Fold each of these.
Amino acid sequence: MIGPLGHLAIMAALVVAAAGSLASFAGGRTGDHALIAVGRRGVYITAALVTAAVILMLTALVTHDFAVKYVADVGSRETPLYYTVISLWAALEGSILFWVFLLSLYTVAFLLTTRRFPTLLPYATGVLLAISAFFLFVIAGPGNPFAAVHPVPADGAGPNPLLQNNWMMGVHPPLLYLGYVGLSVPYAVSVAALLRGTAGSDVLRLIRRWALVPWVFLTLGIVAGMWWSYAVLGWGGYWSWDPVENASVMPWLVTTAFLHSLQVQERRRMLGTWTLSLIVTAFLLSILGTFLTRSGVLASVHSFTQSGVGPLFLVLFSAVLVSSIVLLTLRGGTLDAPGVLDAALCRESAFLVNNLLFIALTFTILLGTMFPLLVQALQGSQLSVGAPYFDHVAVPIGIAVLFLMGVGPVLPWGASRLDVLQYRLLPPVAAGTLAIILLLVLGVRGVSALIAFGLAAFVLAVTLGRVAGDIRTRRGNTSESWVGAGARLLALNPRRYGGYLVHLGVILVIVGITASGSYQLQGNATLRPGESASIGAYRLTYLHLVPHGESNRMVLGASVRVARAGRDLGTLTPSLNYYKNQSQPVPDPAIRSTFAGSPLSDGEQLLRGRNPFEDLYLVLQGFTVNRRHPARSAVALQVYVNPLVGCIWLGGGVMGIGGLLAMLPARRRRTAREMPVPAAEEAAV
Amino acid sequence: MRRSSRALIVGGLVIAAALAFILYQGLSNNLVYYITPSELLARGAAAQGQDFRLGGQVRPGSVHVSHGMHTVTFILQDPRGAVHVISEGIPPPMFRAGAGVVVEGIYRGDIFNATTLMVKHCATYRPPTPGTVPAPDNCVT
């Protein structure tokens, strides 16, 4: 019964969304309030119908209604309830349903919070409903999750074991989807602005706020994905330049570029068309990402046509691409003031170079991701672009971006005076140099890693120096306490300090990536019960196997006693999980992070020149069981020691908080002295 | 045109040229072709010292695991050819005679030195036919 009802809800939502979209566009064009109201109501009704469809699907999943195709595909009676619920996004059809659901929520939130902009809203609503209609069409026809199954199977296969091996599967995909889907809103507002030919600073603020929301979700989603890859896949790393990972990071990079170029647009009325192109590109890349990850095109160029969903995505992608290019060329020119750069060395040019670097990095990743597909489509030969390609290009660009993160905030808008720059840059440069010397003394080697650490220290000094300078200036004027002045400044300009907090998060992430990428230790050992092996400061002793059964899997763990520098740290149990629906076991690594260690002994380690903040990462690779001589049974362990990996998760969280802060509306300024654009700089425009 | 904007354009072109160079170099050095043993043999001397991903079936009776499980040698075959493979490290749990595997590494002499060894994620396996594009994981479903 659920199947037909669900399909009915989706069909009805499709009709309402399509009609609402047309009504909104017509209303926007004619200014007819009745039509605009029809479009608004369309948004709410679509959202209600899609929510009903999602509830029906969840009911079908939880009650194991195998007459519904999607449940038959991903459901299984043995799967625990949590993984049953989250298998809503375990496969193609369900994740598109989830996509539309999030989009309809975003659209409602956008309409409810945006009261002004009467001329833009109908167009933006029309675009958003049109996108909804497209995805509804996909699940109404070729990718119908509610299709009937005959005969009804008694049980299903259950979701892919990798998707039910870790609770993170309930967190990481929704975050990423909220990011991908959320880019629809700034895209829709940009299209509306282009159609109306108006993009004043208030419109840009609207776009910015709605671009920050998906940016925060993308940031958290990407970092959560790295954590999932690290904690579940058992290869000791967190980023393999997999096309799916690349697909998530590309829209993030372009949105980041957008958030920076927007500041130039707001301050100097330059780069308007460019700024809008960036947000349009980010949306295109989010569609491309959904297409790449969800159509099967990655497995083979020739397999994506089998589902019928792939070609539709290609149609959507082409339609958005062509219409955006046409809109930007025809209407883009109206947005720019004829501003020019006053000097090569100023904040504007720093932002411009920042944009170029982000775009270059995105293009690099896009090329590496799409190249195998192009070659396969044109030549038929299968090849892959190795991870060294991405590292080879991303590391120098990353270092350049890091450098700019230090220089940018120091450069003034408009023209700059070299003596001021020298004065501002001297302490941070000294801090960076000092950091490199200190690390060399401690025994750290490696040119690019040292450059990265040195630059991280430089950026840290610049960022903290800027904040401290602002607080000192305010205290000079107001006689507030340090904390009071800091809080007041944050309330006055959350954007600025949210942005700095994001930069601090980036520093943490870069330090984590550099350290774990350059100084990872790895080794393997085959141990019989009671035997030991050493890696770094660790000594591992294999004790025995510990099997136990769960409803959906059998878990075989190897109990390993761990000691670090002579101190006993208890036991770790890496395991192999045997799922009922797959012959191949899934390794479940055991990780011990010394971020949780005692600070006293950590300090002692640091004094001895040993990094105390590292992860011990154990993977059970295989075992032999000798029943006659149990003492000859052995386990094969793969062992990694990953320094400072925890910095990446911490930094991701800090970036997310910074992004949230930057979203807060600024408190009204009281005095003319604190106006956003100082008179001297206004005159330069 | 003001001097500063000309400087910016020149700077942009320099960056673009540098990027193009880095991209070209990076791509041409890091392409890894996915082929079968017989396709590897057909490449003859041109394949020497090159990186490949090689997909095929482990010939039954050819597997030798060294003491301590640190290296494994076997013959990887498709219907028209076979290549000796040496793989460093512990073979994954499902590695066995007859399994479909993908190895990645360098072809030197008559031996393929694999740095990674992956077992296909399926129960039944059909070796890829040369000349056709292999299915995603060469599985028979």
Amino acid sequence: MYVAVKGGEQAIDNAHLLLARDRRGNPAIPELSIDQIREQMTLAIARVMAEGSLYEPDLAALAVKQARGDLIEAIFLLRAFRTTLPRFGDCVPMETDGMSIRRRISAVFKDLPGGQILGPTFDYTHRLLDPELAIADDARPCPVVLNEGAEPVAAPHILQILDREGLVEAPLNGADAGVEEDLTRTPLDFPACRELRLQALARGDEGFLLALGYSTQRGYGRTHPFAGEIRIGEVELSFAPPELGFDVPLGAVTITECEMVNQFRGSETQAPKFTRGYGCVFGQSERKAMSMALVDRALRANELGESSGVPAQDEEFVLSHCDNVQATGFVEHLKLPHYVDFQAELALLRQLREDWSARRANKQSADNGAAEKQEEAAK
Amino acid sequence: MSDLPEYNFAYLDEQTKRMIRRAILKAIAIPGYQTPFASREMPMPYGWGTGGVQVTAAILGVDDVLKVIDQGSDDTTNAVSIRKFFARTAGVRTTTRTPDATIIQTRHRIPEAALGEHQVLVYQVPIPEPLRFLEPRETETRRMHALQDYGVMHVKLYEDIAEHGHIATAYAYPVKVDDRYVMDPSPTPKFDNPKMDQCPALQLFGAGREKRIYAIPPYTRVVSLDFEDHPFERTRIPASCSLCNSTTVFLDEVVTDDQGGRAFMCSDTDFCEQTRSSTGAKS
């Protein structure tokens, strides 16, 4: 007869061996190097670093390789490593004004100080598969970019221009806000302040935020957004050790920043003005930064007195479900054995069905009895 | 440990363990109250026992003997995986014998053998909030607990009785702890609920994804919610274990063929083995 299966340990070991074999694929094909992944899969690396909340391209590349290209798995690997790292302090709030710009566009002004800089974008490519790329060719010359090496531009934030007229609300200033809380070190409590919401969105799932941002455009919490500015480039980070009293540069990170400018019709206490939605992520990811800005603005519905109960405006709904490492874990935990619960449900279901049949039988005999009485009365 | 020099004893760093221990102490001081804690990302997925693992990591000492069960069994894959994790990162002794363990981490069951004062039972909890499926908002449920506003739960149980003639909850059956907090016992079958009452062992509950820890101190009153005219009833499975013949334990139903054949056996595999070795029943 069937005996409860033993040998879980051996099964797990074998599964790991199979996984390692499949990860490698056909051994006749050269193995991917971390360098190759880091250099040629940059946008995958960017996503893993952003949602993994750890800026380390080499480790992100390793995670992508180890995860067989499953980016959420790679994000998970990076998170599980990040959580073990000691914290020695907070960096000085970064100044994105001083970004060395690779791309910077505005959809609200035709021309502006610093200019429109397209940078490395898919935007105007025709999405035609390129047969040339199908052949790996080390001899292919590296594309030469015109005008590269021109003087770096000074590019103030575009919304500052509106700001001078008082048409747009003041930006959220990280330095002033003095947010001590770190989402990864304190449990999230509701209602959350905007700074904490932004922390959660910055590491939130790109697809989830994309869908939520999209829903606001389709009428589920409309925010009338304009892409005030999107900029991508390197920003220097520094740390001010209290014992030194001055800033020590730590290095630079590539970030994508998006400022949405949104209509606001005013309320009893506030004059009509433009409001802001803010997005900022590691690496080059406009889709994520823009979605984040849309959702950030939607989540301010309460503060601005425009709440209508749609998903993108619902802080608990958005923040409780935007983390893909949490989401994937809980969805996939349904794979774990549930025999005990299922057994308890089986017993309950059998009892419910017995009761149901008994009630039905009772009702039928009662109905029959009533029908007979009626017949008798009719006679 | 020599092959893992980069990780601390039981994986978590000491600062994190201290944070978790403080949450545990608070949880013990307020029986049944869901204490928020800064749950860490663990090297296993959320929903796979990260809360239990963090609690175990925080209380584990070098002299502890660890038992890990899932569905009552030591040999289910996730139990094996968690036991291996601690054997590797903490080098502690592990056991499958319930009386020999000082810490028992469990998912979905409470062992059949009575627990003692020297033991801690650590539950893995998916959704710590017993009111969650009646009220999805955390802000609301926290308020309801604060005010002991458990009306919706009683209405739900009453509606069950009105509709089905009895309370239609088979697992994760809500309890009241120390006459104060309504608590989710984790998805254990309600068969196990009476074992929580006046239990000599400390019971700790860890929910990693939801960032909550709660506790039942030793010898605490734990009452399964019911009504005077519809008292709580343990699930009875009218069968006996086909291996050890036990009838008073929770039995798993096993499909033996494709002709509708069924057999029952103990969910608690250690209990089954001990019963067989003491009675000489053949396996």
